[in-house]
Amino acid sequence: MAQTSSAVGQGSTGQASAPGRYAIFITGHASPYTEEKYGGYGQLLETLLREPGEEWERFVVLEGKFPTAEQLAKFDGFVLTGSRHDAHAGEPWILQLIDVLKEAFAKKQRILGVCFGHQVLCRALGGTTGRSTAGWEMGLREVKVDEKLRAKPYGAGLPATVRVYESHQDQASAIPPGGELLGASERTPIEIFAVGDVALGFQGHPEFNLDVLTDLIEDRRAKGVLTDEEADAALESAYETTADTKAIQEFCIAFLKGKHVSEVQAEKPLDEELEKN
């Protein structure tokens, strides 16, 4: 069963309007700590992207809980979470998700994917993904924003370089046909891509705060996924400076909802909102 939340308000013009409807596809579960304190990846992304007057639902597609065709048709856009799973794998739920994304894209329903979501969206639209030869990318990273993105209505508020939390060992290796490369970093050549004004992939985690990232790094250290050296380096980068969460938040909202970034109404500090959930 889908999880639903809603709010009543006005659109960005100040006039009453029909609320936008958005669905989050949960493709992975967070640690027990993050699930308990923040509500998991779905809640983190809803907190990041929600504006007044909207309806949001969540579907745990990782467990095969997909919306029906009738449900799919009612949404204006979809958001894909991160996951420990491989976007290039052949698990049945991943293949079903790819079919759903193809259908949504064909109907011009907007799609925003982060981390695993970025990768599986790339694959669904004809790009390629796989394991990075650079190994794990963990911590705070600088992403160079292409001028093409900064010239778009939804990217107008972005600086030339943004700092974002990252946690991945897979990556998109070739963008889909007709797509644009809009951001890159030293170790990840495809950080941001878009296909028209319908699909956007973002490799980083704009929904994370420092607490969530720290917990994830320590969890992976404890499980032997990261060496002490890798975990310490990731933490050092994360605590050295701050992420550009606000600018990235507004950019993601503007894309998903077809707005100019100046129309975005996400005014509360993100960490303050996260602590309430």
TrEMBL record:
GO cellular component, one term: cytosol
Matching InterPro entries: ChyE-like (IPR044992), Class_I_gatase-like (IPR029062), GATASE (IPR017926)
UniProt superkingdom: Eukaryota
Pfam families referenced in this protein's UniProt entry, alphabetically: GATase
CDD domains: GATase1_1 (cd01741)
Domain Glutamine amidotransferase: 70-211
Family the entry assigns: Belongs to the peptidase C26 family.
Protein name: Predicted glutamine synthetase
